[in-house]
Amino acid sequence: MEKAILLVDDLALVRLPLAIRLEQAGYLVTEASNGIEALKMAAEKDFSIVITDLNMPEMGGLELTSRLRSMPAHRNVPVIMNSSESGKEWVRKGEIAGANVCMDKSLLDEITDIVRQFTGELDIHHVTGVQHDHEVVEPMA
Fold it and tell me: What pTM was estimated for this model as a whole?
């Protein structure tokens, strides 16, 4: 399977630079502006990784992740959820929904390394400021 990424964010200003960065790293990126669009795309194509925003109109990242987990083709696909929300409550909700990584949007510069970890191209155990597979990694002061 080619390294196809579903990138979901309602803000084109967030999606575009991420898509460019990931495409330059060799990934095929499909973009959606909300969870409803993303589910339609996921029903038609298999993805290696899903990167989603938490808060979006129509359907946000929590519901999207829960629904992806109910689809046989996407049940085990890594989901990277991001948000600009502060606090840990959204991270807990992301874990319950099935997200593998919950990260602050300010850390999206590290997205390529996180994706490479899931595709087996990079072995990183900790990425600063990321809730990763239920292990809390705090930002460095």
Answer: 0.85
